[in-house]
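Appendix B. One record, verbatim.
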Amino acid sequence: MERPQIFYTYQWALAVSRAYQSLTPLIWLGYEAERLVGVAALAESLQQPKQAFFLCGATADYCDFICAPADAAAFCQQVLNDLKARSFTGITLANIPKDSPAVNALTARTRGFGYHVYSRTAYHCAQVVLGENTQRERVRASVEKRQAVKRQIASMSKLGAVSTSHDRDSKLVTDALPDFFRMHVARFLAMGRTSNLVNRERRVFLRELSRLLAENGWLANSRLIVGNRPVAFNFGFRFAGTWFWYQPTFLHEMTKNSPGLCLLSKMVADACETPDIDVVDLGLGAEEYKERFANASRETLHITLHASPVAHFKEALRYRSAKIATRSGAVESFLRRQRERIASTRHRRLLPAGKKVLRRIWRRAFSEDEVLFYGWGVSAPPDHILFQLRPVQIEDLAEASMLYCDDPQTQAYLLRAARRLRSGGARGFVLLAPNQIPVHFCWITNFDGFHVAELDQVLSSEQPDRQLIFDCWTPGSERGNRYYPRALSMLAEQLSVSGSAPWIFSASENWLSRRGILTAGFEFQFSLIRKRWFFKRCLSRSSSGTAASALEPAVFAA
């Protein structure tokens, strides 16, 4: 090829096929006599049969048909002919370079095979072209004279010596991957987003890729280190004259020091000193910081081929609608909500959805909600010695996000917890099992001024020492192990020792929560009851609790 890439190698495809078990590789080999002249590495998924796409489309920054330019037309024609003969109704070619010889060959010949083609710009990939010695010196000087980077490095130097490393050894990279995963997931959680490394398959892919690429000397895992602590990573590669900025991340607590930007500056400067590196490719994504370094770019396309004209029209309409929506945040948010509602309705079917709407209307007109409040009464049994309850950190949320990646409800909880941790006010705690795995989360805040969502009511108290435990969560796979009452009793003990009065509440219908609360040593104090009658609300307080006596004391036996 004119511009070979690491993404086109056998090692990359092998790592994908080993990690993503839901994909079925479809490999076309083109021969001229006995000579191999072309490879098309495509795939289909179990969920969408007869829909072909690049095997590495979800992982590679560039995807292409592998062949010499002179063979592109004939090879692409043969692949399309075979796809049509095998009754493939759709083909998605993501991130194919616009300058690829295969692009013209594909777009010019699709109609002859009954496919409708739609092509749009996918990304403009920023690049730093190093060139000859004069340009290398110019690039290096422009990077090293950046005052902002100098200030940030000087600031980090107060915490320890600042250094960089570019690890090529498989063991060094593999040993560093857990820290890299945790740092990446934590940074995304802190931004209110979900990292792709939460996906177990993605982590397996990077581990496989590390081992396979290191065997050929193509791996380059870069780290910015302050003292002995890595504060920024780039999982990258060196291949055929290109150094790739592939998957970077940095320590969230160091955000103000821009460690990722400092690492990229060091990497570009080091590339200028490396004769066999011609380009630093900054990859997919139009992040603003990349433009500060780039002196060139490479455009990629997203090409879809549909046998059905209706599917072709939908594809074009979907893209144009999305482009219009992104111009207005409000429109984009509205469309996203409607799409989620439609998908939810389809999932639940029409009749159950209608019943839910009717129940919601009924509850708004006629309902009675009771919330029970409990105060700490007795000390917990001494069975917590192997467990640890400590203040939660963003790294704990990241670890849990990867451990419980298949639990959507826990993922939603962790995003909410990350937002609360970022905003401050409440304090979070995590219960660690003896194997140091996070198994339960809970939060405390001042009783006075707390808003109870179940009642839409703000609490008040004349006792400033009252602390309210709320928003407790055990991941689905860990339930049934009594982590909830164990965490409550340990937290209540800590609060009592510090001079605070622990309190907790529960909705009356949540009998599992109430059982855990009583098992932990809390005692019922009072309940608040809100009644609705034709949209009028009435709030009352009860010292007996209509639901508190609904469970026999024997139920709460340890």
